[in-house]
Every structure is written in structure tokens, then in C-alpha cells.
Amino acid sequence: MSHKINSAFRVFIALMLILSIFSGIATAAPGLKITLVDQTPYPAQPGQQIRFWIQAENIGDGTLNNVTVQVVSDGVFSASSSESTKTYSNIYAGSKVYHEYVMYVASDAPDGPRDLTVRYKEGNNSNWIEQKFTVGIGGIVDTDNRGTLIIENVTSNPEVFMPGDEGIIWVTLKNNATNQTVSTSNKSTYMTNARIQSADLYSKDDIIVKSEAVNDLGIIAPGDTIRIPFRVSIPEDTADGTYLLTLNVTGSSYEYNIKRNIEIKVDSAGIKAIQSKAAYTSAAGKTIEIDIVNYHQGSVRGVSIVPVAEGMSFYPTEYFIGEMKPDDLFTAKFNITQGAGDSDVEFKAVYYNGDNAHEDSITLDIGQVVKQSSGVGTYIVYLIIILLIAAVASHFYLKKKKNVSLIDYLKLQKAQFKEKRDAKKSKKE
Asked: Percent of the chain beyond pLDDT 90?
């Protein structure tokens, strides 16, 4: 009986130890996220140095204190004690920190994917949390194909991002060889096709690359190109500026790899409305004219302006512009068909940056409505003045030449006209 009790007691103690271990792991750095964001070279080469760029992000609500991040040496990867560990005094909520770790790859390390172990903890008394990342070693060494890959072009849609946007970055790779074969100094002949084993785009900043690495893209003939898309996302709180993403392309062998920075721009400026002149009234009614300007560094499309004001109706209800290039200016004119007086008018600019819908608005005080003549009244005034001048001139002319006033002359002409009319009438009878 005592043997069974002792056995049960030992099982209980073992379970408590296991639970305490898991409890320690669960409470260690609960808000820390570790990411392997870069490695150089890519893929790793046996017997050579490799550098890992590791990000630690505090995704919790509070500050993490005395955080230690360490790369673990094993039979494949090794690092000195001074190179393997980084301790951060404070990592504030929502912030990211980076550190570069230098390791060495064993000379007899086999080709293929291998695990890199990274562990971290908060404080001196907490337990380590381990995380593994897959690292490629070696790769296909295609000695028969020696084409040279270059980045021919990089485009994006939209061409300049706004905070909160998503879009596509297109990378065009080209085999820069001009001949089908190439000969070396030892008179060996090789094909100039270019093999692409993989292509990957990643970010060390807050820009998010949503596309995974693409593998086994095949062989590109001399002079041919291939276009590779990568989807990216810009967080809402991203500051204006230029950001660098890193492109890694694995070619026929290590010597034919590409690692380049890809530049993207973020600009929060959009469409702005500027009142170009005071509101006025004309024969068409009350009218507002505004200038629409694209302050964004890139082109936007589908631009439409909608005026909104309480107690007012407008014609047209919407002014469509379409595409606007940077610094383009268009003038929109709206007639107020209902409502009057001093009022604020909100002008909404609705448009697309790439495939992302945006809306900017600005409220303008149109001020006192100014009456503006249509021009007809002015012409009538001019005509009356001309007639008066002609009448005065005729009066003085008749007075001088015939010694008769203009009024007497008009009466005489009227009497003569009446006599002629009566004579014609009696003749007919």
C-alpha cells in the first residue's frame, strides 16, 4: 500500500515540476515577438560567416524590462559568447528593436533547410523561450548555366503610397547575357541561361510585405525577363518618407545571387480645394468657383468633387475630373440652386490611389455672396447714353440749319407723315 502511495506522490511531484516549467515559459516576456528579418549571405554557405538581423517587437501593453535575446550555437551554426547575446534595458509597448548576430556555418554542413534556434527571456529569473527559424544552406549549384541576372525595372501600384494603402511592387528580372553560350579561359563552354531558385522581398521597417518568398521560378533564356509581384501594406501611422525593402534573389549558385534595396515612397498629402474667387450671382444664379489641386507626389485617378452645405443645393451635384498627375490643377464651378447668404461649404474630394479609395474634405467659407452683372444691363445703359447724345446733337443741328427745335421738327415730321397717309387713304376711296 505504501509503495502505491509513494508512486502516486512521485507522479504528483513530476506533474508539478512540469506545470511549473510551462508556467515559467508562459509568463516570460508575454508581449515579445521575435522575427528573423534578414540573413547575409542568402542562402548560407558551408564554412563561411553568416549575419542574422533579428527583430524584437513588444506587442503587449506595458514596457518590457531587461530583455535578453540570444542565438543558440549547435552543430551547424556557432557564435562566440560576445556575438550571440543582446540585452535590451527597455522595450516600450508597440516599439521594435534590431540587432545583428554574427555566426559561422560548419564546413561540413549539408545543403538544405536547417533550424536556427533563437531564445529570449525577460529579467534574470524567468525561463528561456525558444523559437526556431528555417535557414537555407547551399542550394542548387547549376554549373551548366551561367547567365547573369539583373534588376531591369521596379514599379509599384500605386506609384507613391499613402498611409493605410495596400499595393503591388513589381520587380522585373532580366538575363543580361547576349549570347547563347560563353567560353572560359580553359576553353570550357557553358550555356548562358539564368536559373532563379527563389525571390523574396522583406522589410526592416514598419512596412509590411504580405507576399511569401516565391521558389523554383525556372530558367530564363538570354535577353528574356520575368516579372515578379510582391504585395505590401502601409500601416495607418506610417510617417511620410522613403523606405527601403530588401530583395533577395537566389540564382544558379551563390555567385549569381542578387541582394538589392527596393525604394518605396509614402506621402500622406492628397487632393485640396482652394477658393479661387468670391461667390457671385449672375443670370445662372449664385456661383462658386474652386481650384482642385493634387498635392500628392504620385498620380491619382477617379477624382470627383462633391459640394455639401446645409440648406443648399448645387448644380452639378458632382464634378468629375478623372486622373490627376502631381501638381495638376482643375477649376470646378458650382451653381447654388437653393439657399443663399453666408455659409460654409464642404468640398469632398473622392479618388483612388492605386486600388485604394480615399476621401479628403475641406470646408470653405464662401463669404457674402457678391452680385455680379450679367452684362445686359450695362449694354442698355450704353445704348441710352448714345441715344441721348444723338438727340442733343440733332437738336443743335436743326436749330442752326433750319431754325427749328428738335421737338418742333419731330412734330412737323409727324404731321407730314399723317398727311401722306390720309392722301393715300382718300385716293383708294
From this structure: 41
CATH class of 149-266: mainly beta
Is the fold of 2-137 the same as that of 271-371?
yes
Which residue is listed with cell 450679367? Answer: 374
Backbone angle region of 222, left / alpha / beta, with phi > 0 → left and psi within -120 to 50 → alpha: beta
Give me the pLDDT at residue 125, please: 74
Tens-digit pLDDT profile for residues 246-291? 998 888 766 678 889 999 999 999 999 998 888 887 766 788 899 9
Annotation: CATH topology of 2-137: Immunoglobulin-like (2.60.40)
pTM: 0.65
Whole-number Cα distances in Å, 7 to 4, 12, 17, 18: 5, 9, 15, 17
* Residue with more model confidence, 117 or 145: 117
Query: How confident is the model over 98-120, as a mean pLDDT?
Result: 91
Query: CB 256: neighbour CB atoms within 10 A?
Result: 20
Which stretches of 41-144 are assigned E, i.e. beta strand?
Answer: 49-58, 64-71, 77-78, 85-91, 96-105, 112-122, 129-137
CATH of 271-371, picked from 1.10.3720.10, 2.60.40.10, 3.30.460.10, 3.30.70.1450, is 2.60.40.10
Distance CA 165, CA 265 (A): 12
